[in-house]
């Protein structure tokens, strides 16, 4: 989001951390801690890794919280493992979104081991489009991350700490499809850390990309993230980055393994992005993507020859199968049977990232320069196939094809729209005028406009008579 100031308009930009600046493997600076260390989400996969690390950094007492406490899977074994290292361990059942529960946990920290560091790794990740989320759904995602961090900040006040680390996400840095609420919660964490540092308090936010062996990357979502240019980080490498971030001086850092060749073109699908514009890898990736767009003519020639060898009735099916096959491959389907010809691309699971890969595949095979927005411009595979066929075989019925495609887009929009009564009548009236023009030329348009005028001037009784006589 731009910041408007008296001196101008400012936007965020990502810059690569300098070597030795604290983030990364092989960091020479060390970080030690004594006393008690609180880890929220401490019995989960990430929390357990943090606990093991801080136990080796001098922590004398670990307070691990999770909603289920010792009833969480592996919690008892984790406690035994840590105690074997000579660390005192408290595992508490606590919903950090509940201020009173969190305050009660903080009150249990013994005076002999005062609280010296906080790692906030609790949170709920739920992929869902904002339009399909209820207020309760959004609250459940936001509460653990944002409310928990806010409560920690308020309850600890200006207490001096060696570290106050929150686990944020790239969803709050550059957004992520289906994670609006999750992204908002993580953006709050980043802002909270900036606020703490402005108050002279400890604060570090680490905006993570996907970790291997945990979170979305541990399931089927891992392959999809990798196709989008976000492969999962090895946990050991991620922990090395965490050590560097905690020992370093930066307040908000982003740690992710990014395949810029895949990610950058998709991220800039709608417009250029100042956020990534200063990263050399992004500049190079976008230059190569533009060059690739201009080198697909050979593929188009082969497709044209193949289509011309088919009977006219078979060409439509061949192009439709081409479109469905590439869509299935991009979405990770086992075959094109999963891509129904008339089903909306959005319903199939396309987003801006997969749309770019889909476009690139079609460009390579067709020789066309299709827009990155094609899955949003054409409602389904059938409509897109008609457009592609018209581009590859421009001499075959080109005059009607663009109009038909436009009508199909309009039909798709109307089928999902929910206009009120007044808007519905206005749309119907406009369509009647257009239909009259198509059927009867200027005379037909005059008749339709006359009907519209009669409706505007009609009384209630006249309207009921019109409905009875003309529309029943």
From TrEMBL:
The keyword Ligase does not apply. Residues 317-392 form the Carrier domain. One of its GO terms (molecular function) is phosphopantetheine binding. The keyword Cell cycle does not apply. One of its GO terms (biological process) is fatty acid biosynthetic process. Keywords: Multifunctional enzyme, Phosphopantetheine, Phosphoprotein, Transferase. InterPro entries: ACP-like_sf (IPR036736), KR_dom (IPR057326), NAD(P)-bd_dom_sf (IPR036291), PKS_KR (IPR013968), PKS_NRPS_Biosynth_Enz (IPR050091), PKS_PP-bd (IPR020806), PP-bd_ACP (IPR009081). PANTHER family: FATTY ACID SYNTHASE, INACTIVE PHENOLPHTHIOCEROL SYNTHESIS POLYKETIDE SYNTHASE TYPE I PKS1-RELATED. This is Beta-ketoacyl synthase. It comes from Streptomyces iranensis.
């Amino acid at each position: 989001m731009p910041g408007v100031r008296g001196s101008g308009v400012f936007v965020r930009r990502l810059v690569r951390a300098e070597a030795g600046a604290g983030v990364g493997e092989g960091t020479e600076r060390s970080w030690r801690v004594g006393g008690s260390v609180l880890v929220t989400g401490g019995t989960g996969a990430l929390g357990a890794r943090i606990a093991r690390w801080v136990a080796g950094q001098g922590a004398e007492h670990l307070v691990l919280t999770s909603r289920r406490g010792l009833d969480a899977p592996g919690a008892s074994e984790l406690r035994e493992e840590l105690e074997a290292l000579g660390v005192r361990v408290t595992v508490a059942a606590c919903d950090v979104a509940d201020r009173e529960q969190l305050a009660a946990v903080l009150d249990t920290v013994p005076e002999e081991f005062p609280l010296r560091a906080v790692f906030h790794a609790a949170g709920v990740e739920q992929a869902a489009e904002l339009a399909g989320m209820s207020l309760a759904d959004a609250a459940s995602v936001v509460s653990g991350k944002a409310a928990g961090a806010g409560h920690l900040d308020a309850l600890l006040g200006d207490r001096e700490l060696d570290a106050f680390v929150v686990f944020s996400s790239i969803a709050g840095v550059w957004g992520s499809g289906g994670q609006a609420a999750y992204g908002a919660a993580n953006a709050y964490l980043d802002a909270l850390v900036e606020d703490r540092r402005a108050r002279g308090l400890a604060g570090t936010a680490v905006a993570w990309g996907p970790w291997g062996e945990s979170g979305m990357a541990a399931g089927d979502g891992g392959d999809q993230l990798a196709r989008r240019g976000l492969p999962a980080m090895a946990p050991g490498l991620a922990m090395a980055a965490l050590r560097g971030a905690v020992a370093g001086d930066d307040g908000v850092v982003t740690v992710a393994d990014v395949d810029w060749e895949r990610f950058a073109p998709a991220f800039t699908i709608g417009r250029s992005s100042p956020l990534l514009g200063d990263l050399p890898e992004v500049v190079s990736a976008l230059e190569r993507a533009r060059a690739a767009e201009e080198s697909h003519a050979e593929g188009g020639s082969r497709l044209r020859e193949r289509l011309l060898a088919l009977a006219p009735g078979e060409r439509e099916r061949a192009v439709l199968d081409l479109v469905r096959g590439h869509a299935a491959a991009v979405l990770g389907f086992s075959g094109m049977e999963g891509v129904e010809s008339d089903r909306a691309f959005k319903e199939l699971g396309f987003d801006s990232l997969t749309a770019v890969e889909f476009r690139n595949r079609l460009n390579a095979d067709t020789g066309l320069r299709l827009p990155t927005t094609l899955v949003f411009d054409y409602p389904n595979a059938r409509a897109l196939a008609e457009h592609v066929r018209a581009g590859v075989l421009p001499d075959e019925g080109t005059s009607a094809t663009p109009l038909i495609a436009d009508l199909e887009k309009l039909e798709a929009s109307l089928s999902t729209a929910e206009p009120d009564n007044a808007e519905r009548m206005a749309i119907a009236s406009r369509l009647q005028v257009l239909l009259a023009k198509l059927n009867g030329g200027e005379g037909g348009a005059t008749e339709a406009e006359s009907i519209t005028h009669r409706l505007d001037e009609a009384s209630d009784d006249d309207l009921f008579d019109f409905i009875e006589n003309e529309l029943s």
